[in-house]
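Question (not urgent): is this output format expected?
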Amino acid sequence: MSQASVLKFPDFVLRRISKPVQHIGRSERHLIELLIKTMEHQPGGIGIAAPQIGVLRRIAIVDVSPKAADARRLILINPEIVKMEEETVNREGCMSLPDYTANVRRAARILVRWDNYDMKRCEYEAKGLEARCIQHEVDHLNGMLFVDRVASLKRDVFRRKRYL
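Got this back:
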């Protein structure tokens, strides 16, 4: 399976809200595999959401395990963040805005619920980079980009100096 092209800002699809997944069939499994393959081929890719490849479905992949030893790959179907604690500001980047990074305020710890392959509800407490990445991908499902969360475009957004 090859990878998909990642949509870049200002593509209008990135600003649309994704539709919930009702069941997992062949097309949903194919989409999940395509998302994983696409994320793995991106420099520093630790997360991707379906809208980033032009599919408005509530599916996201988060895998910060290359950067956080206690993390695992999460396949999030219909994710929702139900609890957020302790704000922190850290630098973020995005495959859909590859030339920029920004200082973004997000919760340091979250409780996230999502459906698994069997459409059974799962719940997980994430912290640190993993919590940040989940919030970033859920934003994509809601038509938001990380630059929407900065306090000042002038002060908090930076041209990327290197690509991981």
